[in-house]
Amino acid sequence: MKKIASFLLVNFTLLLSSCSGGNDSNDYTVVDLYPNVTSKFSGKIDLNNLANYANQTIPAYITKDNTVGNPITDKGATLGRVLFYDTNLSSNNTISCSSCHIQANAFGDVAIASIGVNGTTTRHSMRLANSRFSNEAKFFWDERAATLEVQTTQPIQNHLEMGFSGTSGDGSISILIAKLQKIEYYKELFKFTFGSETITENKIQLALSQFVRSIQSFDSKYDTGRALAANDNQPFTNFTAQENQGKNLFLTPPVFDAAGSRTGGGVGCAVCHAAPEFDIDPNTRNNGIIGVLNGTGIDITNTKAPSLRNLVKQDGTTNGPMMHTGNLETLQTVIGHYGTINLAPGNTNLDPRLRPNGFGQKLNLTATEVNALIAFLKTLSGTNLYVDSKWSSPF
Fold first, then answer.
1. How far apart are CA 79 and CA 21, in angstroms?
2. Is 333 helix (H, G, I), strand (E, B) or coil?
3. CB count in 10 Å sphere of residue 178
4. Which of 143, 210, 249, 386 could form a disulfide with 266 if both were Cys (CB 3.0 to 4.6 A apart)?
5. Considering just the CA atoms, what is the radius of gyration of the chain in Å?
6. CA angle 308, 313, 318 (to 5 degrees)
7. Which fold has domain 217-389?
8. Of all residues in the chain, what percent carry a pLDDT higher than 70?
9. Rounded to whole angstroms, how far apart are CA atoms 307 and 296?
10. Spatial separation of the C-alpha atoms in residues 88 and 95, rounded to whole Å
11. How confident is the model at residue 294 (pLDDT cuts 50, 70, 90)?
12. 188 near 45, Cβ under 8 Å?
């Protein structure tokens, strides 16, 4: 009898351990402790066999990572996935994070301004792919969020976007939390992830940011070539001559004359968008785009940019317009913008790298160089990002 009692005690202890939230192993008990999750997300989420978010393959040449104090777990990212796609996070149950950050568009939007519960966004929605792999830890175009964790709940608390601002007749985020606390599958998911049914803004931030950081793309033509090369400066054996020319132009700094006109070298995109992450330099200032989406005046505060990976899909179409104003719709127009930088009145925040010797840069690109740059930028797009079910809607 003592042996039987001991056996039952051990197995009961293991059962409690499996749902405590402290162990991210996939070796869960077969006893279904989460019936509402099982029912709601049948065929999409299996808590006994979670998708791999925590241990995805990251190439050895990728070294940048803005994860601080909130490592990705399978449990946390699974909860984050549900939160990301749930319209319950908006005041009128019509908008989710995924409404503006769409998997088919590298988690960006083809609309210039995304639709919210009380109007449209004031800046174009930024692509989220590879958000983790950057030295820049701040988020939003104007870097007003110190971390991704802080960023995740700000759209929820925006009057225009998701409507829990606590102003203009909106309820506050505490109203949202009370709303989610009444939803049975959230009681179970928060218990599963954190060991308690209690929902807080911090827990929402932790889960959403784990899911967003899990969205990665390293299966591009560029990655195939980079894996075979000692460094980025070597010609990639899988690239065409045009693609290698574009890579060289991208990486090599330009040589300017006294009037800011390029006389040699490359075009130096990598000075601000360094390979192999192609993230934005944290010290970058305004890039010469100072327009606003709504209203009049200028906006010179925008100094953040998404990774240049997955600017386009495999068919060459863009994942939506580019820049915070969404005013540049093709890679050619983006290159054209940087080809001739105008010193606009009032732009006191223009990056000094775009005004050599005090003049707006003139790259004097030939048609051959423009086409080579475009060819190279297209090599930065993968395929799995758009189809992997672990980043798709669980509803």
1. 12
2. helix
3. 12
4. 249
5. 24
6. 70
7. Cytochrome Bc1 Complex; Chain D, domain 2 (1.10.760)
8. 92
9. 29
10. 8
11. confident
12. no
Owner of token pair 């105008």: 342
Q: Is 339 helix (H, G, I), strand (E, B) or coil?
A: helix
Mean pLDDT, residues 99-120 taken together: 98
Whole-angstrom distance, CA of residue 148 vs CA of residue 377: 26
Which tokens sit at 305? 């940019």
In angstroms, the CA 110 to CA 101 distance is 9
Which stretches within the chain are classed as H helix? 2-18, 35-40, 74-85, 97-100, 148-152, 173-181, 184-194, 201-214, 221-227, 241-251, 331-339, 367-378
Question: How many Å apart are CA 208 and CA 197, to the nearest integer?
Answer: 17
- At the topology level, CATH places domain 2-216 in Cytochrome Bc1 Complex; Chain D, domain 2 (1.10.760)
Mean pLDDT for 329-340 is: 98
**Secondary structure of the chain: what % helix, strand, coil (to 5)?**
35, 5, 60
State pTM to two decimals: 0.91
Mean pLDDT of the chain: 93
DSSP 8-state code for residue 78? H
CA dist., res. 228 & res. 72, Å (int): 29
Tokens at 55, concatenated: 């241990």
Q: Are residues 121 and 114 in contact, defined by beta-carbon separation less than 8 angstroms?
A: yes
Residue 153 and residue 204: Cα distance in Å, rounded? 8
Per-residue pLDDT averaged across 182-189, rounded?
98
- The residue assigned the tokens 């988690």 is 107
Give the residue carrying structure tokens 């759209």. 155
| Closest by CA position to 176, among listed 195, 161, 194 | 161
Read off the pLDDT band of 206 (50, 70, 90).
Answer: very high
Residue for token pair 């606009």: 344
Residue pair 98/114 in contact by the 8 Å Cβ criterion: no
SS (H, E, C) 248-279: HHHHCCEEECCCCEEEEECCCHHHCCCCCCCC
Confidence of residue 13 (pLDDT cuts 50, 70, 90): very low
